[in-house]
Amino acid sequence: MHNKYLILFLFLSTTIFSQNTNFDKTVDSITVLYKNYKKTLNPEISKIAINLVDKTQSDSLISKTYKKFGLKSFFKSDKKTLILIKENLKKLYKKNKDSSVLAQFYYIKGLEYRLLYKPDSAFYYLNRSKNISIALKDSLSVGEKYFRMGIVQYKVRDYIGTEATVIEGLKYVEPLNEIYFTVFLYKKLGNVLMITDRQNEAREVFKKAYSFVKNNNNNFDLAKLYASLGKTYESEGNNLKASEYYYKSLQVDSLAIKIPHSYDLALEGYSYNNFKLGNKELALKGYLEVLKSRIKRKDVNNYVFSYSLLGELYASTNQIKKAIYHTKEGLRIAKKINHSERILENLFLLSRLVKGEKGRLYLEEHFKLNDSLFKRERSIKNQFAKIRFETEKKDKENKELKIDNDRKQLQLESEKQQKTIGWLIAGAGIMFIGLGTTVVLNRRKKLLFESKLLQIEAREKERQQIAKSLHDEVAGDIRILHKKLEKNKLVEESKELDRVKENVRSLSHQLSSVSFDEVSFKNQIVNLVSDYFEADFRIKIKDINTVKWQDVNNLIKRTLFLSIREALQNIDKYAESSNVIISFKESKKSLFLTINDNGKGFDTSSKKKGIGLKNMKERIEEINGVFSVDSLKEKGTTINIEIPKNGN
After folding, report:
1. Which pLDDT band, with edges at 50, 70 and 90, does 20 fall under?
2. E strands within 114-198?
3. Contact 624/644 with Cβ under 8 angstroms?
4. Tell me: the pLDDT tens digits for 305-339?
5. What residue segments make up the domains of the chain, in order of their start?
6. Rounded to the nearest 5°, which phi and psi values hold at 387?
7. By 3-state DSSP, what share of the chain in percent is helix, strand and coil, each rounded to 5?
8. Which of 546-559 are b and which e, b meaning 16 or more Cβ less than 10 Å from the residue's Cβ?
9. What is the full DSSP assignment across 294-344?
10. What pLDDT, on the 0 to 100 scale, is given for residue 608?
11. CA 12/CA 34 separation, integer angstroms
12. 8 A C-beta contact, residue 472 and residue 427
């Protein structure tokens, strides 16, 4: 069969060029070659197609062909074709210096490292490819690469990192009204939420993913939705509800014929949950049917699930020989495809099934592997964070260089303007001296004001980075340790660690920046107030609509937001107030904020003022603002803030 296809396509390619066929016929020939490559996975066919497309000298067709064959060779683990395409992309980039070709080269290289089970290298090159696509403003390609990066993180159980990556990807593809990668990203997000025990959120995300495709009237998408929902209930231990959803998936017409892979997953889930419900005969029948289907389709990557589940079932019915056989098969295949979770499960089950020294050795191997996997996963997560940190650091340095250049340009323009003003003053006489001096001073104030805003912006970026590290790394590590404590039934320690985790998350949210591009200033204030509003603690917002917030610098808005938040926290904790009024006012040059409460007040002459008021005062004065506090005991407190719009 191999020789038959090889001769057929060698003849086809020779015929094409001997007859000088046109471009359209070449495209048709490549299409035929691709269809046959999908059937046979013969690397010689892909080699013929690549040689054929290279002779067209059409960059767009070459790039498209490389990507099609590259992705198919990755999905089918054809390393030979994948390496051939990678090397050809490298040559093509050296020839034309096209950034899109370089992005594709890094992409294919990242996929190659995935086949080699080197997740840190795969993530590195996918990240480089993604950054080039961002520079090229190719949003769809950016979303695709975020999706592939998320898969790499997911496979090493970096679930917090996966969640962040997938959400970033959605920001790029969702506005495009693109279905394919939008759905895949939502499904991956649903899987992360499910595996981190946020089942209700996971169900909502899975339903949202389905909403993108439901207008296509595709029942197979509905089958996948049912299976995903079934998995969320299975994760909660609600086996009855889970089996109902898996059964709904199985009832979709022609699923077993047209999408056997999805049918097998649904039947496996249905069987597993019935096993948990005690219906072991039904479960065994389903498991065996799935295994038979996978063997027929040569679905090697999923053999491991079938054998492992059969091993567990036979062990529960005391059919020890069958249990050992299937568990060993599951272990062998899990090691072959490097599926760490299944390796651990099968080793642990064998340690219970096999008596004596062999059983002890299985248990010892389980403990050693579990420890090494944890260390490796921690190392890879750190590597992911390092890759992103270095990338963000370079981006930050580039932005700072741009800001520095802009500042220098601004200074040059300022100096030029000052010289011009000087000549005008000299020519016009004393009557213009006062006016010229005022202009220069105002200009200088504006420059200083803009410089302060840039400093504040830089600090905000640092806060964001710290908040991100707290949320993604520290909270993530605490979560893992928390789960370990729960499993070891260390209840009190687990509760205390959970409290620490919530404190870390709270701190990360306080440090994180507020975006007024996504949510308006008015809505941010309304949301803030709603967090504190209670029946005996009423907060009123006055005249917020009189200010043109779209014309106000975001850093000024953030300063006002933080001041209001700090004031509300102080009032809530110490003032014993029942009413708070937050008032806004705008003049041509300034913004005014007044916060008044009817609380118990305090002595403003006392040196022991809280750190909150001190922080507010420093924050306001840093941008040339004026801050004052008036308070009388049992009469309440009034905070007055004035901030210039342009530093004057």
Report:
1. very low
2. none
3. yes
4. 888 999 899 989 999 999 899 989 888 988 887 77
5. 1-76, 384-511, 521-644
6. -60, -45
7. 80, 5, 15
8. ebebeebbbbbbbb
9. HHHHT-HHHHHHHHHHHHHHHHHTT-HHHHHHHHHHHHHHHHHTT-HHHHH
10. 62
11. 13
12. no
Strands (E), 374-505: none
* Position 74, amino acid: F
Tokens 């269809």: give the residue.
Answer: 35
Tokens of 394: 């370079």
Residue 92 has phi, psi (to 5 degrees) of -65, -40
CATH architecture of 521-644: 2-Layer Sandwich (3.30)
Of the chain, the end-to-end C-alpha distance in Å amounts to 83
Buried b (16+ CB within 10 A) or exposed e, 445-478: ebeebbeebbebbeebeeeeeebbebbbebbbeb
H-helix or E-strand containing 1? none
Helix segments in 196-316, DSSP class H = 199-211, 219-236, 239-250, 255-258, 260-276, 280-297, 300-316
Assess contact for 274 and 282: CB atoms under 8 A: yes
* Strand order through the sheet with 579-586: 538-542, 579-586, 590-597, 636-644, 626-632
Residues in Cβ contact with 563 at an 8 Å cutoff, skipping those fewer than 6 apart:
593, 595, 616, 619, 620, 639, 641
**Residue 269 three-state SS:** helix
The one-letter amino acid code at 441 reads: L
* Segment 267-294, tens digit of pLDDT: 999 999 999 999 999 999 999 999 999 8
Six-digit token pair at 303?
A: 């053999």
Please give the Cα distance from 538 to 568 (Å, whole number).
11
Phi and psi (nearest 5°) for 14?
Answer: -65, -40
CA-CA-CA-CA dihedral for 258, 263, 265, 270, to nearest 10: 170
Handedness of CA 489, 491, 494, 498 (dihedral sign): positive
- Segment 5-29 shows an average pLDDT of 55
Q: Is the pTM here over 0.90, yes or no?
A: no
Paired strand residues for 592: 585, 642
Q: In terms of C-beta density within 10 A (0-12 exposed, 13-18 middle, 19 or more buried), how is residue 382 classed?
A: middle
Q: How far apart are CA 33 and CA 53, in angstroms?
A: 11
The residue written with tokens 């097998």 in the block is: 264
Decide: 611 and 573 in contact? Cβ < 8 Å. no
Alpha-carbon distance of 372 to 343, in angstroms, equals: 13
Amino acid at 345: E
Structure confidence by residue, pLDDT tens digits, 342-386: 888 888 888 888 888 888 888 888 888 777 766 655 655 555 655
